[in-house]
Amino acid sequence: MEVLLNLFLQLCCPRCFEEGILLSEDSTYGLCSNFVIRCKHCDFYSGFSSSKKTLNCPEVNTRFVYGMRQIGKGFSAGFKLCGTLNLPRLSDKTAYTNHENKLMSVISEVSELSMQKAASELLVLHPTKIKLLNVAFQLMERGSVEVTLP
Ligand SMILES: [Zn+2]
Question: Would the pTM of this model clear 0.70, i.e. be above it?
């Protein structure tokens, strides 16, 4: 943060062209910080976020939860990691779980679309085998046969 503060002090105001832009952290939302820059000499100010937002949610938080899941870790490990790295963190387990639920919803949707696409491709490439599989599934649903996969 100190590096950024010093950097912004060197920048010129886009309105009055004087040096001395001040940076302050306005708020945080998990790992995302919202900043405000103000000019020391005029009334110019502007805000920005440290993370791109998707559906009004900072992407860094979702990516963090996704990364933790990828390495097989959860909220507690993420809490410790952020603390060790002196990073802001998701406020509580509920916030973390909300991100996990959003991820699972998206993963489920993408998986279903992928399976539908793969089934469509198989239908074109091997129409006879697919028709046989459909018959087998219908029989299984009726309880007429029991199928053991190799
Ligand atoms: Zn200014």
Answer: no
Does the pLDDT value for residue 6 go beyond 80?
Answer: no
Query: Could you give the CA distance from residue 125 to residue 127 in angstroms, rounded to a whole number?
Result: 6
For residue 56, how far is its CA from the centre of ligand 1 (angstroms)? 30
Separation of CA 2 and ligand 1 centre (Å): 21
Residues 70-79, buried b or exposed e (16+ Cβ, 10 A)? Answer: eeeeebeebb
Question: What is the C-alpha to C-alpha distance for residues 61 and 132, in angstroms, rounded to an integer?
Answer: 46
Is residue 31 a contact partner of residue 90, using CB atoms and an 8 Å limit?
Answer: yes
Indicate if the pLDDT at residue 140 is higher than 80.
yes
| Strands (DSSP E) found in 13-85 | 21-29, 32-39, 45-49, 53-54, 57-58
Report the separation in Å between the CA atom of 12 and the middle of ligand 1, taken as the mean of its atom positions: 8
Residue 17 CA to ligand 1 centre (angstroms): 6
Q: How far is the CA of 53 from the CAs of 1, 43, 59, 63, 94, in angstroms?
A: 21, 27, 5, 11, 20
Residue 147 has pLDDT above 80, yes or no: no
Nearest by Cα to 46 from 11, 74, 81: 11
CA distances from 21 to 17, 48, 57, 66, 91 (A): 10, 14, 28, 36, 30
